[in-house]
Write a structure and sequence with these properties.
The chain is an all-beta fold. It has one helix spanning about 180-185; strands at about 5-10, 15-20, 25-35, 40-45, 50-60, 65-70, 80-85, 90-100, 100-110, 115-120, 140-150, 155-160, 165-175. The chain has a four-stranded antiparallel β-sheet with strand order 3-4-5-6, with no helix packed on it. A four-stranded antiparallel β-sheet has the order 7-8-9-10, with no helix packed on it. A three-stranded antiparallel β-sheet has the order 11-12-13, with no helix packed on it.
Length: about 210
């Protein structure tokens, strides 16, 4: 199988199409554009008939030329499900196998597809058993859509399997992919010294950077 990234005009006319090939097959699941004019597509590369790993593809803004392809430095079982374009890169949500369980991750990549940071995302569900309450323990997850919110944070929709049932999951994350500063051990006591917008100073995010 080959992945395809196509561009159409507002009138529905096909302007360009690029085929993405790889040994074993390519399945592209989402596409976005960056502020610098690049197009980034993501999905999975089939290693063989049963194994796959995430794949990111960067294309020229007109969609006519593949500029780069990236796969994990260490082979894993993962795929990219959703992409959000940034000024010089993209945010993405995907699925990765951790300790035998399908787990959701979020990642920021630059305009060459290199990872800037990556976080695992845990969901807690009211129907979970006591053993399921720990983040990423006993719960299988499948990401669906990642969006960037007006305040700079992220919202991630996913399917979460608890017991024999799949339920809807929604996670609110900060701009660095953290769901809870307290859980991440990154809370700090800090008071801004000045703000340049004339409004009272506040701290919206708790992060060492």
């Amino acid at each position: 199988a080959r992945g395809s990234v196509a561009r159409w005009s507002a009138a529905g006319k096909l302007l360009a199409e690029s085929l993405v090939t790889s040994t074993g097959g390519v399945y592209l699941l989402d596409v976005t554009h960056t502020g610098s004019g690049q197009v980034i597509a993501g999905g999975e590369h089939r290693v063989n008939t049963v194994a796959f790993e995430r794949l990111l593809v960067g294309l020229s803004g007109d969609g006519k030329k593949v500029l780069w392809k990236t796969q994990p430095d260490v082979p894993d079982v993962s795929y990219v499900a959703s992409l959000v374009g940034e000024e010089n890169g993209a945010l993405l949500a995907g699925n990765i196998l951790v300790n035998g369980l399908a787990t959701v991750f979020v990642q920021r990549v630059n305009d060459k597809g290199a990872s800037v940071w990556q976080r695992l995302v845990g969901f807690r569900d009211e129907f979970a058993t006591a053993a399921d309450v720990a983040v990423n323990e006993g719960i299988a997850m499948a990401p669906r859509t990642l969006v960037k919110l007006p305040d700079g944070g992220l919202a991630l929709a996913a399917q979460v399997k608890v017991g024999d049932f799949w339920v809807a999951g929604l996670a609110k994350l900060d701009p660095w992919g953290e769901g809870s500063c307290l859980e991440a051990g990154k809370c700090v006591s800090e008071t801004p010294k000045s703000c340049d917008d004339g409004n009272p100073c506040t701290i919206d995010w708790c992060h060492p950077n």
